[in-house]
Amino acid sequence: MFQKIAQLPWLRFILAWFITFSLASICHSQFNLWRLQQVDVLIPLDERVSFTAQDWLGLLPTYGVIIAIALILAFSVTNMIMKYLLAARPYQQLLTIIAGALSILTVHSILYPILNVTLIAGARDSGLVIQMLCGALGGWAFYKQH
What pTM did the predictor assign? Predict the structure, then answer.
């Protein structure tokens, strides 16, 4: 299956985006629910699942699009580096993973000064590292289909 996907770069990208956005959205939701539990709010499993699904759908037209743009830019720059710096080719997997993580860091670094608020509450404090890991997993998925 992955060999067929590798022949269609836009499908590789869509899968990488889906993984990045879905994990980032789920982590955002769970991070917020965890914070509520820290102040003794009881959240049953069915509400957790419902909240997470609603967040996924709600974040799709905003955070989903922002992540797509960030990943397109990150993977394009990585591809240019591979094309022009032959010495970087052995590090293609690592660079693609780093590109995914840095794309998420860049999004949050740019949006905070503009909006003067953390756009994704789940990206506050250690949540930003978790969001970056979601981007790294998307980068890994993009590379693995290569």
Answer: 0.86
